[in-house]
Sequence to fold (420 residues):
Amino acid sequence: MLPTPSSLPACPVQHGSPFDSNGPRIPLDTTEFAADPHGAYRDMRRRHGSLVPIELSPGVPATLVVGYRTALRILNDPGHFPADPRGWQDSIPQDCPVRPMMQWYPNALRNAGLTHARYRQAYVAAIDGIDLRALQATVERIAVPLIDSFREAGTADLQTQYAFPLVFEVLNRMVGCPPELGRRVAAGMAALFDTVDAAWGMRHLSEALLELIALRRNDPCDDVTSRLTHHPVGLDEEEILCNLISFYGAAIEPQTNLITNTLLLMLTDERFAGGFLGGSLSTRDALDEVLFNDPPMANFSITFPRQALLIDNTWLPANQPVVISLAGCNNDPAIAGGDRTGNRSHLAWGAGPHACPARSVAYLVVQEAIDQLLDVLPDLFLTVPKHELTWRPGPFHRAMTGLPVEFPKSPASNLRGSTS
Fold:
């Protein structure tokens, strides 16, 4: 005879967990969250521990991981936490604003096992073929005319007038994308990240990149697109397209935001600014502090468990997104504290089999961009108080709407590099 429910012993584990409860989920796509994410992470951790019930957009439940060690466990266990979302996306409406950002594509980011290995082989080879010495010179050639375009005015928005156009043009050079196609790529990628009109953004982006692939299929050059197109694993057009989208997505928003977030730190933190100007801290130290505290992709590294799993005494539902809060985990009190100068154990690049393979490229582009700017305009200061700066809402990125600065006017260098 089976025991009755009343005769069963109490179970200490939270079956169903807070994720299946009737309690409220915490939305990540609000202006309130964007204004004070660290306060939100502290409150999440106090109320829920390392695993937090959230909404990525209305009606899209997920789990946010804010515990560092729990995140490492998940990121290094692709068998239980695959990155393939196909079991999830069938339950999500086509017009859901985060679906284009999270759904399955034939690329390294959204696959697991042997399929992931095939895509990553071509993806890594395409990135490893980038000449870092030549890339540094490319950044300088692009940075100089951008700085010249506003140095005589004495004011600039470093987000729109410097960081974004620099990252975008450097990326176009790496992938071999002509300017006209590049502008269409930028418009599509911006819509995709803002999750405002993401479906339009994906269509617009894809159309432009398919034209680029056809161009490089017939006229290969020393660039990422050509290396993907002609790699021995034999990617077809759709596979090349989706891996190119991943490359753009991993570069435009994150690198732009990393430049501006680092400049914000250097312009407003007297401890750091004093050390930097005094020569005791490097640009690399500034970058790593931002990657710890305010990484440009604050919440990402999404996985989709195929079955219900028990983690930290909490059941995670099958086929529901598990999102790593890179910012929340980096600032987990269990590992935070003390002087972290030179410490690069942050999760801003991810971890495990899906860790970012382009970190050397990203470090070089961002560091060179900042050094070029500060070499020419060392006396930058904000035109508004730090607390008046605004941040773009969205569940994934940590991005300002603008970074307005002033500086002593100076004549243009007339050493204008080509941005064509």
